[in-house]
């Protein structure tokens, strides 16, 4: 089985681009990733591409070949869809292809463009990731669904709105100097508490924004890297994917995320590590409560104990376990299909030492990316390791 290396990474700045097309955004991210890799475009064997609402937002299906054309390649191209985990699933597809020996160079990417739609239209599009029969038709949106999860957590384990607010404050702090982040804006706990309520107990600053953007990663086999003298010091050492029921009502608990637990268990076993080996993470914080649930699902905190991690400084840049040094979905932004790939872009730079926040983790060697779909009905976890 071939070892999978990250040869190059690239991303657009995340933000609001109603005047740009998805193919244009993706082409930009690919140009950066290929230039970073030093791999000839003609050596790319295939494209694994993540996107969720493009059929709604741009009325564009069949995006695999379209994005291959935008990337300047003509090999096999496949679009992966798993709601907000689309990018992570695309990455897993690329990892599996390299490991199997069916490809030596895989371009993995993702893109989403949503700000050309109204808020109501985007909300309706994203709601397609929920159960249509039992949730969507009843008027459940994702802010409402995550509010139910947050309320259940606070009821069962205690804690405060201030604890949740600290997650948002931390991630905004991490994004302050990240030029790729949608919000380079400092906020306070008071700002979060005083913001308009979206779905009690979650307010405006507890939620990630609507974001346009694209990210790309060039994966190569260890064999290819050695033969072509490609500098690829980061390996994807572990990969795992998990699934849960689509509707919240069918779950035995609102305060655990079994899909994350399964994905993490498989990824750690694949990489032959335990959670104790992890130095830093990018986790799927679409809402502040989602970061808390992710840390517990990943086995880094016991159930019911991660709520205070940000407030107590454990997951800040200078904490014991830095989380979302990019700013996370909360501040960097959440262009849905690109998010899972973007997490790996950020972690690769952090581990290589060329990220604006690399000084916070200059001795880190193991990182984890956690990407989730819906109310964590889908989860993908990847373990990155420095190899040299």
From TrEMBL:
InterPro entries: Thiolase, Thiolase-like, Thiolase_C_2, Thiolase_N. Residues 240-385 form the Thiolase C-terminal domain. CDD domains: SCP-x_thiolase (cd00829). Residues 12-222 form the Thiolase N-terminal domain. Pfam families: Thiolase_C_1, Thiolase_N. The keyword Transferase applies. GO terms for biological process: isoprenoid biosynthetic process. One of its GO terms (molecular function) is acyltransferase activity, transferring groups other than amino-acyl groups. Keywords: Isoprene biosynthesis, Transferase. NCBIfam families: PRK06064.1 (NF004720). This is Acetyl-CoA C-acetyltransferase. It comes from Halogranum rubrum.
